[in-house]
Automatic annotation (TrEMBL):
GO terms for cellular component: fatty acid synthase complex. InterPro entries: Fatty_acid_synthase, HotDog_dom_sf, MaoC-like_dom. Gene3D superfamilies: Hotdog Thioesterase. This is Acyl dehydratase. One of its GO terms (biological process) is fatty acid biosynthetic process. CDD domains: SAV4209_like.
Length: 139
């Protein structure tokens, strides 16, 4: 991975989009096993229906992990200074997440050159599922 340089990054620059395959029951089972999050609303159809949902749906933290993957595909993890996210929608089965980021600020703080990046995870219909931001230190 070639880490971008502060002087080569401009406000408005987009991070490379991370497009993912549609969420499936297998995706949810694998994530539950890997994360230890076995909440039945995400893996048990009968439970989900008893809760008033039409079907199981993705863990919010799965989409958050995808946004983390977007960031660490752009810069090494040790360059991250702050990441914040808020959940804005449910990712249903069949939704194909796409994660994007855009540089919105360049500044210096604590002796480092930093950029603030807006983050977004949306489905194939453009419906936001997570919005957030990150602060990244660059050389």
């Amino acid at each position: 991975m070639k880490t971008p340089k502060f002087e080569d990054v401009n406000v408005g620059d987009a991070l490379p989009v991370l497009s993912l395959p549609p969420i499936s029951r297998t995706t949810l089972a694998l994530y539950a096993g890997a994360s230890g999050d076995h909440n039945p609303i995400h893996i048990d159809l009968d439970f989900a229906r008893r809760c008033g949902m039409p079907d199981v749906f993705a863990h919010g933290m799965l989409s958050a992990a995808y946004l983390g993957r977007l960031l660490t595909g752009w810069v090494p993890q040790q360059r991250l200074r702050r990441v914040s996210m808020r959940f804005t929608g449910i990712t249903q089965l069949g939704h194909a997440p796409a994660c994007a980021g855009r540089v919105v600020e360049k500044y210096e703080e604590a002796g480092e050159k930093r950029v603030r990046v807006e983050l977004r995870c949306a489905n194939q219909y453009g419906e936001d599922k997570i919005l957030g931001e990150a602060v990244v230190a660059l050389d």
